[in-house]
Amino acid sequence: MINKKNNKLGWLLTSPYLIFTVFIFLIPLGFALWLSFTDWDMMSPTINFVGFDNFIEAAQSTGVHAAFFVTYKFLIVFVPLVLALSMLIAVLVNALPKFKGLYLVAFFLPYLSSGVVTSLIVNGLLSYNGTFNRFLRNQFGLQIDWLGNPNTALVIISLMIAWKMSGYYALILHSGLENINKTLYEAAAIDGATRKNMFFQITIPMLYPALITVMILAVGITFGIFTEVYQLTGGGPNNATNTWQMEIYKEAFVSLQSGYASAISLISSVITFMTVGVFRKFIQKWGESNGWT
Q: Does residue 1 surpass a pLDDT of 80?
């Protein structure tokens, strides 16, 4: 029999989250859904309902097509990169005899840095008269347009975000490493296993709970990239770094097509959830093959 007093207390304790969900998520989502069926620019006194025209236009838009493919390019470059960096940091810090917390905090600090400030610094370093380009010109006679080349621009932005996020993800992975039973390594060493064998056969499988968290977070990040792209390339060159968020921003605040931008944002949300779901299924299958249920 459920105690009514405890039941009311439970609703009271969860009410802040429920209120937050309603006002910050559900109401804006409903408004965006309604807006996507109109041509309203958020300023005009007249509102015309256009049905699915915004969605049809988005499906035919070169900007939306670019955002779709660019996001997966970022995913291919960024996710393995940040996983490798965060794993390296976690393993190295875990091997330290002391001051682990101090090093973890030091690696975590970039996560707290402003994306705008970081982008401005990188832009200054990689500009034509920047320190790095002057060094390449003077020493090797090289002149590379880092942010004007589609391939290098995407890699640089991926590196920036990986640098920022790797310390945060390393904290999660380090927590997983701390929870691995050390007797597993002792037994493997007695059986003659090498460090490489122990890393791939014990460490990686036992890190499944932490790895699935980090991978889902990393995949989600790729669908929300905006600040670095806005500051460094504006989605260029030739839409080579035009992410979903950048396309939504341009349509909503530059072209003043709020209804159309809402349609793009809803399409982006669906694709994001589908992609995260697919990744989650694959990771779960891998976990199940290693004994996790």
A: no
Domain assignment present for 5: no
How many degrees, rounded to 5, is the angle at CA 23 between CA 256 and CA 263?
35
Angle between helices 150-178 and 208-222 (to 10 degrees): 150
Domain contains 222: yes
Of 242, 244, 105, 82, the closest CA to residue 171 belongs to: 105
In tens, the pLDDT along 229-263 reads 999 998 888 889 999 999 999 999 998 899 999 99
The strand pairing partners of 38, in sequence order, are 49
Return all residues near 255 (Cβ < 8 A) that are at least 6 apart: none
Query: What is the distance between the alpha carbons of residues 18 and 224, in angstroms, rounded to a whole number?
Result: 24
Cβ–Cβ < 8 Å for 153, 232:
yes
**Does residue 183 lie in a domain region?**
yes
Half-sphere exposure of 157 (CA within 13 A, CB side): 33
- 18 confidence band (pLDDT: 50, 70, 90): confident
Provide the residue range defining the domain that includes 94: 52-289
CATH assignment at residue 83: 1.10.3720.10
Q: Taking Cα atoms as reference points, which of 198, 209, 201, 179 lies closest to residue 284? A: 209
What Å distances lie between residue 101 and 63, 87, 106, 167, 170, CA to CA? 45, 16, 9, 12, 12
Which residues make Cβ contacts (< 8 Å) with residue 100, sequence separation at least 6?
A: 93, 94, 174
Please tell me the distance from the alpha carbon of residue 86 to that of residue 107, in angstroms, as a whole number: 9
> What does the DSSP assignment read for 251-267?
IIIIS--HHHHHHHHHH
Residue 225, in any domain of the structure = yes
